[in-house]
Batch of 2 targets.
Target 1
Amino acid sequence: MQDIFYIRRSIRRFKERPVDKEILEEILDRARLYPSAANLQPVRFIVTLSDERISRALPYLRWAAYVKPRRDPIPGKGPKALVLVCHDRRVSDTPYVPYDVSAACQTLLLAAVEKGLGGCWLGAIDRDGLGSIFDISSHWYLHCVLALGYPDECPVIEQVKDGDIRYFLDQDDVLHVPKRSLSEVVLWVQ
Ligand SMILES: Cc1cc2nc3c(=O)[nH]c(=O)nc-3n(C[C@H](O)[C@H](O)[C@H](O)COP(=O)(O)O)c2cc1C
């Protein structure tokens, strides 16, 4: 079953192929349709396709802790677009904001897959460092970064074994991502 939900895995190796601005705009146009508490829509996206700005941002992003440093960016395989996901405090600052942000992130990542791209949601970020590169309004709070590009890896879904949820790399540098089974995560009730 290869629909976008199965295809979407966190991608940390990208092809050199650039991402067209028009395609990224189509992805962002879908991301803005995320479900939002009270429909306040506080999420804001700061977007760059600039290789120069992306390379300046890379030191402030942390990749794949379980396999470190084997999924740190290497020359020629880095992301081709970065989306900084923020929220505007003036629009909403309720406890629901992180849900809105998460909904927007997943919507964006799935829209990217639909367009043949892949991406990684990066929560382990240096906000001050990124703030020195991107002009972020003082009214905006930076939550996370989505790194995007054409995938140059094809991670494989695994069953969680013995409760071990850590993703791992095999000897061919293929990433394996354990997922909990349907029976573990679903409780049917009558
Ligand atoms: C809130 C959040 C923060 C994450 N932060 C990072 C991160 O800082 N660096 C990273 O390499 N991956 C990060 N990830 C990606 C997860 O490692 C990844 O989603 C998980 O291993 C499952 O793999 P999958 O996305 O392929 O299903 C993050 C994911 C989420 C949802």
Target 2
Amino acid sequence: MTVTAVMNLKGGPGKTALVNGLAHAAAAKDEDVLVGDVDPQGNTTSHLTGHNARNLPPTGTLADVLDRRVNRPLEDIVVPARTRDRIYVAPSGFGEMQEVQDTLLGQTGGDLSLRRAFKEARKNGRVLFDCRPAVDLITRAAMLASDNVLIVVAPEFDHIEGMISVFTAINDLYEFADYELRVAGVVINLLDGSRSDHAGNVDYIREYCAKAGVPVLGLPIPRLADISRLTNAGLGMDQHPKPSARTRWLAENFAAILDGIDKEAA
Ligand SMILES: Nc1ncnc2c1ncn2[C@@H]1O[C@H](COP(=O)(O)OP(=O)(O)OP(=O)(O)O)[C@@H](O)[C@H]1O
Ligand SMILES: [Mg+2]
């Protein structure tokens, strides 16, 4: 099954919201999906499991998997999401992720550690990595464990810069590690339909992607309070207590993005 790293090197375009929407879209199709929370902020972990830095999962975290002094197998730390069957979470180690990364820096295969850890898990279902907005060893490890990357971008200058930096990071992997990582697509999020600068930036993103030969997947996702509320509660768009045409559209759009990733991966 496909392993996808959801990325932008700018903070806040909606990587975590997209991972949530895609995980629910996969589960709605009766697919098993494992969310690897490789962001020390651990937002996905707290939304989907209720655990956080002050209340770490009792079975351990990705920090225990990556820390060679602990060397815990991935399957020991994976927990089911509290909000939907078929979604599983490899919880973030929160603050411990940084310390573990420091220990891995000088070790053989440090940046292949997630590839090794997820080798078996990827045979059982889709994997989505929720990455932090920086290329550190853990992010590189997630890239090297992935088949493709999904870039999320808001139609703002800084976010577009963050998108371009992901393309650069992927080129660096090709040039310096001989590793070919595909961009499955770009998703535009946090669109404000009343702003003409947003419309211009959407055009710019579409042109940039067309030149790079990368599809823009789904329709641009508007800024909507429901997306934030549902994501923070670890819920899918189809789990809104009062479903509407809009929440149905959002669920369909996430499903279309997921299909787009699979089409690119095929
Ligand atoms: N389409 C949207 N409409 C409204 N709110 C959104 C939308 N997408 C994301 N948000 C909200 O915007 C904030 C940033 O989104 P999110 O945390 O998903 O971004 P991120 O890229 O994961 O950030 P970070 O780089 O910190 O990991 C969150 O509060 C989230 O709930
Ligand atoms: Mg995030």
